[in-house]
C-alpha cells in the first residue's frame, strides 16, 4: 500500500478500539443472547439460501442499493497493478451482486480481466447491464451463473477451465458471511483450486460485534454468531481466528488479517454507528 493510501486506510479503519467494543458489548446484559451457546439445528437447504438471495436482488434490482466500493482500491492496491510478465491479470469476483466491487476496479485498471459469479442469473444480467453502461467496451468481462456456494458445481466446464489454476486474484467481499458456516471450508478450498500459485484472496466481511449483529433479536439466531434476516438471507459475523482457521486450513498463507473499526454518524437520527469488518489477504503458496 503506498504511503498516502496507507494513511487514508488507517484513518478510516481504526476509528475505535475493537477490544474496548468487545468489553463493552459482553458486559451489557441486554446483549447476552449473542454469547450464549447454540445447538445448531439442520440449516435450510442450499436451494433455500440461493432463492432468498435471488429474491433479495430482485427487490433491489435498480442498482442503487449498493454504492460503488471505491475504498477497496486503497485496501487492496494489488488490483491496480500489472507487470510485463503479467500484463493482463485475472480476477474472479465471487458474489458480484450488482457490480459494486467490479466497476471501480475496471475503471482503475484497464488491463485486468474480470470473471464473476453470483447465485442469481438475473443479478448477473443486471451487473452486466450496469457495467456495460458505465464502461462501454473498454474492458473484457466474463459472467457465469454460480450457485453461490460451490464454484465448481454450476460453472460450465469451459468457464471453469478458464479459471482453474490461472486466476491472480479472488475477491470475497461480503460474500462468505452469506454461506452457512459448515459449508465455508469447501468454498475456501475451491478458491484455493482456482488461484494460480502465488495468487491472492482479498477478503472483507462482517466482523464480530458489528452494529448490525447487535441489532438482531434472539429469535433470529440460527447458529453461533450466525443469524437469519426476515427475508431469509443469512449473515455470519467473523472473529479473526475463524477467518484464519478457514484459510490456513485450505492451504493459504496469511498476509494480512485485522479488524476494520469504522465510526459513522447518521446525521438524520443523530446516532453514532460503530461498524466492524474483517480485512484479510491470503496467498496460495508459490511453486518452488
TrEMBL record:
Biased composition (Low complexity): 36-48
A Gene Ontology BP annotation from the UniProt entry: methylation
Keywords of the record: Methyltransferase, Transferase
Keyword Methyltransferase part of the UniProt annotation: yes
Extent of the signal sequence: none
Pfam families the record matches: Methyltransf_23
Family per record: Belongs to the methyltransferase superfamily. METL family.
Protein name: tRNA N(3)-methylcytidine methyltransferase
UniProt organism field: Trifolium subterraneum (Subterranean clover)
